[in-house]
Amino acid sequence: MHQLSLAEIARGLADKSFSSQELTGALLSRIKQLDPQLNSFITVTEQQALDQARAADARRAAGENGALLGAPIAHKDLFCTNGVRTSCGSKMLDTFTAPYDATVVAKLAEAGMVTLGKTNMDEFAMGSANESSHYGAVKNPWNLEHVPGGSSGGSAAAVAARLLPVATGTDTGGSIRQPAALTNLTGLKPTYGRVSRWGMIAYASSLDQGGPMARTAEDCALLLQGMAGFDAKDSTCVDEPVPDYSASLGASLQGLRIGLPKEYFGAGLDPRIADLVHASVKELEKLGAVVKEISLPNMQHAIPAYYVIAPAEASSNLSRFDGVRFGHRCADPKDLTDLYERSRGEGFGVEVQRRIMVGAYALSAGYYDAYYLQAQKIRRLIKNDFMAAFHDVDVILGPTTPNPAWKLGSKVSDPVAAYLEDVYTITANLAGLPGLSMPAGFVDGLPVGVQLLAPYFQEGRLLNVAHQYQQVTDWHTRAPNGF
Amino acid sequence: MALQRSDVEKIAHLARLGLNDSELPRITDALNSILGLVDQMQAVDTTGIEPLAHPLETTQRLRPDQVTESNQRDRYQAIAPMTENGLYLVPKVID
């Protein structure tokens, strides 16, 4: 039963091949049996899941239908879940029980989804390896000595290991697409504002976006349908109609114009990954796509700009963790400053502290113009590059990551080396564009992802291209040994 | 210009982060390495370019000035480290 996709589960529940309670029970025991090897869950909500499954079965018995009704999911542990610990992977929030549901959590629960638990992540979503979590590193099911990527590494490892069919993730600089690539999943970062951020613990508010992680594009379409839409409680959420993502999956790719940015194939890219990306392009050409080389000349400036904007916004967002209203509080503070400084010094891990400090420095008196303002100007240059490219092409294609999953611990002491792994994904966040990563082959037994980018609100186009590719390839169907 | 230990102490205080003295050399090195990466930005000519704050350049929505939230003080204070009579407790601020 654990091999079933979300679409297959929807059919099985609809034709009564199995109940949500049977499915939920089977997956919960699989999590118990296998997750100790992976550490992909921070909290498993067994009793709540069984209750939700019973309620979903009752709704179905009463004649209700719906693709998500009774289907299992897990949420990255930065989506607030009412009455359940929401830790954000941090000691700071180890004892924090959220008093409300994030909009995404509430929408999916209303649709009848069964929440199996909360997945591990880099602390406050800061990382690309899922090694900065207070709850320990997550292992990649494709090779337990390698990282699963991050920051949504727990969601990625759990779905890749068939512990469940889908999970939510969030993407600030690649945190859905990069772990999807490193674990052989399909993951989508929607357009900024497409999915409500309300109840998502903020890292960098102008970049953060929640999205679906699954094994197929078809499943991403089903899950995104339940997540997307306007929410008055998120002031940057966009009031645009949500199209039927499943309906456009079958569209022909005849005449689709694909742009290959020459900057994505330069130095630093593993040549074996370049070969697999070109092979995926050949498949898409067979389906009728036409390919053109394009240029995104400001791409090289994206990482420096990101590592000003994201830390600056983080230093502001994380100022709320003060040891007063919720979260970790130090013992016996001698005065208010001591309370703040020790609570934050003890509660935050080293990577979070680094980014708060970079942000505080970049925003401090005398440095604002040189850092934050300059970064926001570069951000416009990057957006302008994309707008020019989308005059000539419908989608942009390239590698999701320059390298396959690296060994646990190998980049811990050098933060800048880890930052460079996000070179291909960060531009979509800076420009607010939708991006998808899909499985495209293996290097040394480790998965490789291809990234597709499209104009604003064209998530349907990305899912369509990935779905058509998945009809003629079988990379996405491969499962890791032992899972 | 590389940050010195005293700069890092000042930034940590601005950010209200209590760091151990033993961590300072390591965090100073890390910050200098990150700022070295970030300083590549200074070579980019952005003359005449407007900063981009929101990718879709939308403006803040306004809503009617009406109460929409109910009072849930007890619920929210249940997760606080220390409260008394509906108030959050902190160390004495004024003698």
From TrEMBL, chain B:
Catalytic reactions on record: L-glutamyl-tRNA(Gln) + L-glutamine + ATP + H2O = L-glutaminyl-tRNA(Gln) + L-glutamate + ADP + phosphate + H(+); L-aspartyl-tRNA(Asn) + L-glutamine + ATP + H2O = L-asparaginyl-tRNA(Asn) + L-glutamate + ADP + phosphate + 2 H(+)
InterPro entries cross-referenced by the UniProt entry: Asp/Glu-ADT_sf_sub_c, GatC
Uppermost EC category: ligase
Keyword annotations: ATP-binding, Ligase, Nucleotide-binding, Protein biosynthesis
Pfam families associated with the record: GatC
Gene3D superfamilies named among the record's database cross-references: Glu-tRNAGln amidotransferase C subunit, N-terminal domain (1.10.20.60)
EC number: 6.3.5.-
Keyword Ion transport among record annotations: no
Keyword Nucleotide-binding appears in the UniProt entry: yes
HAMAP family: GatC
Function noted in UniProt: Allows the formation of correctly charged Asn-tRNA(Asn) or Gln-tRNA(Gln) through the transamidation of misacylated Asp-tRNA(Asn) or Glu-tRNA(Gln) in organisms which lack either or both of asparaginyl-tRNA or glutaminyl-tRNA synthetases. The reaction takes place in the presence of glutamine and ATP through an activated phospho-Asp-tRNA(Asn) or phospho-Glu-tRNA(Gln).
Family: Belongs to the GatC family.
NCBIfam families hit by this protein: gatC
Quaternary structure annotation from Swiss-Prot or TrEMBL: Heterotrimer of A, B and C subunits.
Stated name of the protein: Aspartyl/glutamyl-tRNA(Asn/Gln) amidotransferase subunit C
Gene this protein is translated from: gatC
